[in-house]
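User: Predict structure, ligand iron/sulfur cluster.
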Amino acid sequence: MNALVNFTKIFKFHGGVHPPGHKAESTRLPIGQLPLPEKLVLPLRQHVGNIPKVKVTIGDKVLKGQLLAETEGTVSAAIHAPTSGVVTAIDDATIPHPSGLPDRCITITPDGKDEWAERHPQDWRNTQCNELIASLRLSGIVGLGGATFPTHIKFRVGCKSDVHTLVINAAECEPYITCDDMLMREHADEIVKGIEIAKRLLGAEKVLIGIEDNKPEAITSLQAATTDTSIQVVVVPTLYPSGDARRLVHLVLGTEIPYDKRSTEVGVQVFNVATMRALYRYFELGEPSLSRIVTMTGNVQQPQNFEVLFGTPLPHLVKAAGGAKQGTTHYIMGGPMMGFDLPDENVPITKAANCIIAVSPNLFAPPPPAMPCIRCARCADVCPVNLQPQELYWFAKSDNFEKASDYQLFDCIECGACSYVCPSNIPLVQYYRYAKSEIIALDKAREAADLARERNEFRLARIEREKQERAQKHAERAQGAKQEGEKTPAPGAKQNVPSSPATSGAEDAKKAAIAAAIERAKAVKLAAQQAGEAPKNTEPASAEIKQEIAEIDARRKNVGLERPVAGSAAADADKQAKIAAAIERAKAAKAAAEAAKNANDNLITKE
Amino acid sequence: MNRSPYISEAPSVSSIMLKVLLALVPGIIAYVWVFGGGILVTITLATVTALLAEATMLKLRNRPVQPFLTDYSAVITAWLLALAIPPLAPWWLIVVGTLFAIVVAKQLYGGLGYNPFNPAMIGYAVLLISFPALMTKWPAALQLAQTKLGFADQIQFIFSGVLPQDVKLDAVTSATPLDYLKTQLTLKHDVASIREAPIFGALGGKGGEYIAMAYLLGGLYLWQQKIISWHLPTAFLGALALISGVFWVINPAHFASPLFHLFSGASMLCAFFIITDPVSGPTTPKGKLYFAAGVAVIAYLIRAYGGYPDGVAFAVIFMNICVPLLDMHTQPRVFGHEK
Ligand code: SF4
Ligand code: SF4
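Assistant: Predicted complex:
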């Protein structure tokens, strides 16, 4: 273990927990390769951001690495064909997402030849930095640690950025997950080359690789691969969740990234090791992002890591691991601390899939019923953000969202450490997700109501203006006629235009109109001021706008007004159901909103 | 649906409470040794009353009985109250006190997790105010008593108030050290001469100091088991030592030493078992420090100047009121935020 001793100072963060690692099971065998599956189902949404634009149609023959969908808008990632074959479907299928909702996917039936399209390796050392960064948009690379943020966005700051330090996340702190561990053991050299590229692209001077001390083999191979470089391998104590980016930056640098800033604002950029390898393969070999290492573990015959093509159906992977053992009820994507139940076994492996765990009741027992919070503060002792989970829980439970925000609910990283130690078995994180989604929904509703109101005010102002203008025109015409009449007092004129009293009449009308307009504007303003409370002054609004406001108000009430009685069992059960429903609703709304962005707007109004 | 985390590593509420009960055992053994077996009867009475009251209230409130009964929190309340009242008090005193603690101070506020006050201390305070004479009539430590009451005699006395024929009440009761100190001080004796009385031991009262040490032992076990954090006991004992120390240094003739205060009355029980009740106490580390120090200061002032020999119960109840305020104003700095 001597080789593991490092002399870099470690800056501990508050709290953290030590869940049993269960990493040995899946690290006994080297990374395995899978035979080509019968089909590959590629969800368009495998990343954070916009859905990419499909560039193929059904029946198209595609080659391995060929672009299937290109980035749409700024934050988006491309998708490529993982092997050669034919596009056999572009339709909705179940994707690995907690919502369980189907989403658009491109299905490829492999031809078995695995024939590459033309690859374009780049001489990254001698190519203009901007060019390299621009070409990254076509790589399809996203953060492979699980966040799936398009990597090219992280490089947008450019070569002369203020980023001086790269922190490479090799902590892999969640139990069961070993994909990064195995990648480092077997491909440390590729990772290091990728890091060199990232370093050049950002103009960074310093690189620190943060890795937990429960991976001695990976540490050794990283140290071997970095001997001739300035890259520093920083071994940090095993403590969940040290792999959280902000926690890791603090661990290795002592820098606490302010809650409202990005790491780049303090000169630090964080990447996952697997992302660095993808960068290497893209620039040096000309290979876009087609596969990733996935840990297949839990209740399977032979847990192992596999290099898996994106789009590979999960059963194919399970089979490669010897098949599911008896008692397997379903699968989890991610680790036991932050992962989620897959809606179906028949989902494809995506860029986000770092780990799949086959679950049996023996492996993860269903939680015992929740008891009341006894305020023991164990949760607060382990919260890595130093929040007060018991207070947040109390506020979330009583729908006191304002207080929850005051207590920095939105800084919660949903790591689950608090639930992990709660003697009352309270599903704390679910309460936080619920509160967050409700707050976001409320804000959106408020925004929408304000917008509708603003539009209405605008419309009123326009009507007033037009009225005024009409009055003015009227008056001018009268004035003109009068003058004309004075000049040439033709007998016919009198019949057409009002005579002298009309002049004052027209002026009166104008004044009255202006006064009325001012009055009404005042009323509208008043209404707007009261709007925060009871926007009932919608009298002059058009029917649709009225309805829109009413609907929004109703939604607002739905979310805010049903306060349960503390301590009553019925209310608690109610709340649980409500939380579940809200989570589902929020997810559905989110998915719907995203889908709507894609094409069909009508989904968004469904709740 | 996302219901992570799927794993947990938490002791159950029951196991936490059982450990607290276990930690009280050395204190109870010392208690039996000092005052005789009567306390076991009181504890049993309190336990049975507490469980019956809890079960009935849960039923009435339409809540599941079994999980809440087996969380053992009612038993802790019962034991604490039993240990706090005089051991030879009539049987109905502990029953009334326990009933009040469980029914009013705990269940009517919503049961486990919702009671703003420490139930045992409410029970104690109610008894002290309602039956001051009974609540201050302590037996003498067996080592000091002119006549030693046997276990059977104690039981008989608890249930019927009848002493063996040849025994007078005065022979088995005695003022508590804190009580004695207080009355003697008003008679203008100085502390040094008062403490020469046989009821005083090296640290606190004779006998009582052993019980206090046994509580300390149990408390250290709870700390070692991570059931309680160091904040509360340390701040309580530290603040008590500090404030009594200041008074003692200024006028040692009129004020007892810090050591005496630490090992007299309910100090140790309070430090490790009473203020450590999580439900009615603060949750932030700093809040715990202020809370415990506040209890110590108030308890000391009541001891030195108040109408009752020991002020722990009132001090705890008063500080319970301050808990929401303490929690609100002692929020630790969140990661990435300025203070
Ligand atoms: S760990 Fe659970 S019971 Fe303890 S304070 Fe936190 S939420 Fe309450
Ligand atoms: S889930 Fe949120 S509140 Fe709970 S420990 Fe993690 S960061 Fe803290």
